[in-house]
Amino acid sequence: MPDTEEMIHEDGLPGHESRLEPKPEWEPRYPGSGRLAGKVAIVTGADSGIGRAVAALYAREGADVAIFYLCEHDDAEKTADIVRAEGQRALTIAGDLGDRDFCHRAVARVVEEFGRIDILVNNAGEQHPDSDITDISEEQLRRTFQTNIFAMFFLTQAVRPHLKRGAAIVNCTSVTMYQGSKELLDYSSTKGAITAFTRSLSENLVGDGIRVNAVAPGPIWTPLNPSGGASPEKLEHFGESTPMGRPGQPNEVAPSFLFLACDDASYMSGQVLHPNGGTIVNG
């Protein structure tokens, strides 16, 4: 497996949140109420963006958090500090989630460190804008699917033996799955696969008392887009096309991940929540 430092893409992805201006808003907005007390959660892509906000909110609600990320070590340590400041344990693990063996090793470390796994948040992803389908290389196509959907299979396979009744899996799909995206053909295709995976995995696991749901964010201000995940033209008016006329913040998305992970959503499985700025989709 290659060193994670070598996997930084030429376009700057995944991108440092520490270098982003203005800074995304990750801070939980409300005091915790113990909704995840005693739980252990794996959150992928938790070094920045939505993943950081989810890790922070889960910690505030009482969960210990394993932070899976690619190579942004400073951002990951910042997230770990946030989790610890909430009085919870944090574990950072760097590596390529598109590598099946890494996923199994990483999950084994979490079990060794924390003794259990109750929640898996499949949030990590990558995107590369291309205005013409002929510009999408085979390497990019394979890499996008490897990161965005293969990794969800690999991680779910790795955690499945450790999930007991009452466990929850929350996947991150996207509004592009429902609307399409002319600049993100490969990315939006993976998000369609994630939604189908969510619904099918729910049917597969619901009889064992394990709930599987998803969140489909709209345009959210994270390092993903300004670090190369969107064209300069799109960035200039990022989020303005939503009914609310602005991009969302990570801490506006994290509560959806909390709701689906905790007992408040005990009668929900196979569903998708849509924090997208008011865009109406058939979901």
Name its key features.
283 residues; alpha/beta; Rossmann fold; seven-stranded parallel beta sheet; globular; disordered N terminus
Through-space gap between termini: 38 Å
CATH superfamily: NAD(P)-binding Rossmann-like Domain
Strand content: 5-15%
CATH topology: Rossmann fold
Average of the residue pLDDT scores: 91
User: DSSP helix count?
Assistant: 9
Helix and strand run: EHEHEHEHEHHEHHHE
Radius of gyration: 17 Å
Any low-confidence stretches, pLDDT <50, length ≥5?
1-11
CATH class: Alpha Beta
Structural class from helices and strands? Answer: alpha/beta
Q: What is the annotated CATH architecture?
A: 3-Layer(aba) Sandwich
Total domain units: 1
- What does the overall shape look like? globular
Strand arrangement, major sheet: 3-2-1-4-5-6-7
Helix content: 25-40%
In total, the number of strands is 7
Question: What does the largest sheet look like?
Answer: 7 strands, parallel
